[in-house]
Amino acid sequence: MLEMVLTTGVVHLTIGNLVMWLIAFLFIYLAITKNYEPLLLVPIGFGILVVNLPLTFLMQEGEGLLWKFYHYGLEWEVIPPLIFLGLGAMTDFGPMIANPKTLILGAGAQFGVYVAFFGALILGFQIPEACSIGIIGGADGPTTIYTTVHLAPHLLGATAVAAYSYMSLVPIIQPPIMRLLTTDKERKIKMRQLRPVSKKEKILFPLVTVLVICLIVPASAPLMALFMLGNLFKECGVVKRLSDTAANELMNIVTILLGISVGATMSAEAFLRPQVIFVFIMGLVAFAFSTAAGILLAKFMNLFFKEKVNPLIGSAGVSAVPMAARVSQIMGAKYDPKNFLLMHAMGPNVAGVIGTVVAAGVFIALAG
Amino acid sequence: MSDVTAPMAGKVIDVKVNVGDTVNEDDDLIILEAMKMEMPIVAPASGTVKEIKCKKGDSVGADDVLVVIE
Amino acid sequence: MIDWNLAVRIFSFGLGAVFSSLAILIAAIYAFGKILKSIEKKAD
């Protein structure tokens, strides 16, 4: 009788397991009732739940099912680049090509990455760990995961969840910073409507970009190459089937594997450590500084350019696509309902993705 | 007389006014959806709606005339 | 011990790479835009 009881998971449960269950339920609850990143939080939450069931050995090295997903999907670096393939097939770079100087705002908004990087070092993290924490400030889930798996896999659960949760909190984090750093007059700056972009330009863009970025930062190639391949599928117009598959079915498949793998890294032993709290604090710092840096850079640009940039689109350099661009639109319309910033904000927004991938490439090349 | 144009390509998901309506500046005329976001297109000035050039469900391009106000 | 030299190098290389690659990309976009325009003009 006793032997039988011992083969069940019940007697092996720890307090830590129960705490992780609560976190899992919280994620699933937030996804369902608040619609916070449901496509990720549902599988992540479920992954957390099942990996905290004793004796299931789902994350047992070499044997567990979820370990296999994690190992072949994330450690082998297959999943994040495939997500980028899908993102590329969904992203319209038109607004950025129409007004290329807004690209530089996407670079400015990477500043928070380095603030958090130094912050994490001061808090006692090692350099590879600090890189993984800093990259949260890029507000890009797959890049955060890619970097962390490379440099500090033991922090994966924390950095991934921090990145995705702050991304869904962008509409709450950014507006106060945007109000603080802009004047009423600046918020009402109207920008000239973007010129139409020709099909040829849109086709050339992924080809030129992959050459430029991968030559400068070769370590960014896996993400950048597939990002641009996806975009070429979308824009070239002759492989609609591939483009649709990359953006829909394949994207959905890898999202399932990504979510459950990330959740599976969050066992009680791995996740319930004081370090994780610091990861979340630094992640928030990174987001705040990235937002501020984007806005300040836009104001700085206005000192030189005759055609003024509305600084509210600077915050969209944080690459949470398209949440950050939507926040720019909402803030702009609040101060002048006739002002439409959405398309102008998409430029820095997608440039932010490229900027974050470059920053990650440098981290991996130097700290790996 | 002034034309109200679409600030970006998108889909008309609601038309809030009828021909002949009197509108004030900043009143909602059209609700446009782009990038999965709903945005009101407002009246540039007070006046009367003279013509509505789009209907619910239409896809419009940037700069297309949506409403004419007199 | 933290290697602050490496940390500073990561920071300066990183931010430098981000700005320079996006700046070059801006130049490239302007350049191919111009080239396409001139080709189209010739075709007309």
Describe this structure in words.
- The complex is a heterotrimer of chains A (368), B (70) and C (44).
- By secondary structure, chain A is mostly helical.
- Chain A has one domain.
- Chain A contains 21 helices and no strands.
- Chain A is globular, with a radius of gyration of 21 Å.
- In chain B, 0% of the residues lie in helices and 54% in strands.
- Chain B is built from no helices and eight strands.
- The relative contact order of chain B is 0.39.
- The mean pLDDT of chain B is 91.
- Chain C is mostly helical.
- Chain C starts with a helix and ends with a helix.
- Chain C is built from one helix and no strands.
Work out the strand percent of chain B: over 45%
Largest sheet of chain C: none
Find the structural class of chain C using helix and strand composition: mainly alpha
Contiguous low-pLDDT stretches of chain B (5 residues minimum) are none
> What's the SSE pattern of chain B?
EEEEEEEE
| First-to-last CA distance of chain B | 4 Å
What is the typical, i.e. mean, pLDDT of chain B? 91
| CATH secondary-structure class of chain B | Mainly Beta
Taking the sheet with the most strands of chain B, its summary is: 4 strands, antiparallel
Report the order of strands and helices of chain C.
Answer: H
Uncertain ranges of chain C: none
What gross morphology of chain C would you assign? rod-shaped
Supply database-style keywords.
heterotrimer; B: 70 residues; mainly beta; OB fold (Dihydrolipoamide Acetyltransferase, E2P); four-stranded antiparallel β-sheet; 8 strands; C: 44 residues; mainly alpha; 1 helix; rod-shaped
